[in-house]
Amino acid sequence: MAVTKIHGIKTTVDKAIEYICNPHKTDQKLYISSFACSPETAVLDFKYTLDHTHDCRDAHNANKAFHLIQAFSPGEVSYEEAHQIGKELADRLLEGKYSYVLTTHTDKGHVHNHLIFCSADNITFSHYHDCKKNYWKIRNLSDTLCQEHNLSTIMPDGKKGMKYNEWAANKSESSKKAQLRKDINQTIRIVSTYSEFLAFMEAKGYEIKNAEFGENSRKYITFRSPDMSHPVRGSAKSLGKNFTKERIKERINNKLHRTTVPSVRNKLIDTNTPNIAGNIGLQKWANKENLKIVSAEYNKMFTHNLHNFSELEDRIALLHMQQKEVNTSVVSLESQIRHLEKC
Predict the structure, then answer these.
(1) pLDDT band at 260 (very low <50, low <70, confident <90, very high)
(2) Rounded Cα distance, 14 and 232, in Å
(3) Rounded CA gap, 156 and 179, in Å?
(4) Cβ atoms of 220 and 210 closer than 8 Å
(5) pLDDT at 152 over 90
(6) Which helix (H) or strand (E) holds 8?
(7) I want to staple 109 with a disulfide (CB 3.0 to 4.6 A). Which of 1, 21, 227, 267 is the partner?
(8) Alpha-helical runs (H) found in the chain
(9) C-alpha closest to that of 225 among 176, 172, 170, 175
(10) pLDDT tens-digit readout, 316-326
(11) What's the pTM?
């Protein structure tokens, strides 16, 4: 989903362009594009066009440029795709008539585009009309582009008269909850225990409280990411019935019961049989083989049903964590075996 807003610039075109082209905001000027001008000379290019207009309106009060902002939901679009959408919006809206500078800012929790274009076109030297009709054209174009790029779009909710900052705050809270649900679902798919789930969610940057079970524990688990103003409860009312701590643990256990546990148990070597229990060398061999079997099962579980590269990276990270645990277990077992050999 993308939110759009536009305002006129009467005097400070140079400062506005300098701001949107800030290297710290545009990944060292990587995400800057322009049309019929260059970012360095845009002010002069705009002035040349404006000097050739024949509009009788007061030049002092007329807008010299317009500043359009297009902001996307957190985590929904990459910097590259956002910049491409911004260029497509500029080209469809301005139809190759107006000079513009487009930048994508990467320094906030959400990706957003800045488009500054000259208020007069380069063909007829006529002024752009900033009116409700053209604003709705911008919004409809933005929604259309979001649909073409498989992003969510703004749906009418009947709340007429709501101020922009109130609407944006509501949408921001909703998008953060949607991202939290996505992270929870993704993590459940790649972990094998509830404790791993908590550790991996914390590794994603979430602060988690009230995750424990018991008589003295609080009813609702809470999650809070760095860009959240307040914690979000894992309750049916806040996130949905599938996101309570009881349900999260149940979903992990059900997944393991369906897939991993039966297959692992059927393949593991029984170290309690008389011929293995009484032979240190066979114990060492059996323990190592069992670790290999468990590792192979994890590999099967974490390499099927991948949906995207982000999920693959998460699974690889978890495999590294589990590999460290396996290596620690091997060292511990070998230490125990050496101790038994000395006895």
Answers:
(1) very low
(2) 42
(3) 21
(4) yes
(5) no
(6) strand 2-9
(7) 227
(8) 13-20, 42-51, 79-94, 132-148, 164-190, 194-203, 245-258, 260-267, 274-277, 280-303, 309-342
(9) 176
(10) 665 665 565 55
(11) 0.48
d(CA 183, CA 201): 8
The number of residues in the chain equals 343
Phi, psi of 239 (to 5 degrees): -115, -25
User: DSSP for 306-340?
Assistant: ---HHHHHHHHHHHHHHHHHHHHHHHHHHHHHHHH
Q: Which amino acid is at 342?
A: K
Residues in CB range of 11: below 8 A, 6 or more apart: 64
CA distance 251 to 200: 16
Contacts of residue 36, defined as CB under 8 A and 6 or more positions apart, other chains included, come to 45, 98, 99, 100, 122
Token readout for 150 is: 């498989």
Contact 152, 146 (CB under 8 A): yes
